[in-house]
Amino acid sequence: MGRVLMLWMAAVLALGLVAISAAQEQRGSLLSASSMRPDPRYRAWQLRPKRRDEPLRYLNISDYEVREIQEVAEKYLPKVLLNISPVVTGCPCEEGPQCTDQVYIVAQASQDSRGLQLSRVRNAWVVGTVQQWFLKYEELHAREPKMNYLDMIRADNELLREFPVCVGELVPAENKTTPPKKAEPKK
Questions:
Q1: Is the separation of the CB atoms in 128 and 121 below 8 Å?
Q2: Is the model more confident about 183 or about 40?
Q3: What are phi and psi of 2, to 5 degrees?
Q4: Looking at the DSSP assignment, which residues form a beta bridge with residue 84?
Q5: 169 pLDDT above the threshold of 60
Q6: Parallel, antiparallel, or unpaired for β 99-109 and 88-89?
Q7: Which residue of 2, 27, 67, 76 is most buried, as measured by CB atoms within 10 A?
Q8: Residues 6+ away with beta carbon under 8 Å from 113
């Protein structure tokens, strides 16, 4: 009886070790697959719209662009515009290949201030893809106290699946505000 019990325990232990090693292999393959596409929550946190101060665009901002930014801002923010950050060149790949520059604006409503990140896409200032996603995210979390817990989790997961994703290597659009070339001296 003692030998049968010992053999049975050894078999259970061996099967347990095999299961553990298989689980570790599976976890390793999942980690390598997830490293190719980062967790949407982490990537969203990295791209959270905020003021950037570099790399600065050669020509900061024109009067025409300020008026264009004010028109876009009126749709999303109160009428009082407090600050327009310097124009930075380059956008995250989630904004798409046509995005060349970004700017962050801040407006004040009564006692609080709100910010909005605008992207220059096809030579026009627009609310970019990532900022649009964050507007939906803020709207969802504003409704959270009125929602059932499970409905909130489902809605949050659904919204995370909608987070913009880079698709392969994107070629950035040509920046129309590059510094002018130096004129060659006349001979």
A1: yes
A2: 40
A3: -65, -40
A4: 105
A5: no
A6: antiparallel
A7: 76
A8: 82, 106, 107
Identify whether the C-beta of residue 152 lies closer than 8 Å to the C-beta of residue 137: no
Joined tokens for residue 26: 């599976």
Task: Give the model's pLDDT for residue 91.
Answer: 92
pLDDT tens digits, 23-71: 666 565 444 444 555 688 898 898 999 998 889 988 888 899 999 998 8
Q: Name the strand (E) or helix (H) holding 125.
A: strand 124-127
The CA–CA distances, whole Å, from 97 to 45, 65, 130 equal 21, 21, 13
How crowded is residue 11: how many other Cβ atoms within 10 Å of its Cβ?
10
The rounded distance, in Å, linking the Cα atoms of 165 and 176 is: 26
- Contact between residue 116 and residue 73 where contact means Cβ atoms under 8 Å apart: yes
Q: Whose CA is closest to 119, among 44, 41, 47, 178? A: 47
pTM across the whole model: 0.67
Q: What length is written for the chain? A: 187
- Phi/psi of residue 82, nearest 5 degrees: -95, -40
CA atoms of 35 and 26, how far apart (whole Å): 14
Least confident of 44-53, 57-66, 107-116, 125-134: 107-116
What CA–CA distance (Å, rounded) separates 107 from 73? 9
Residue 95: DSSP 8-state? G
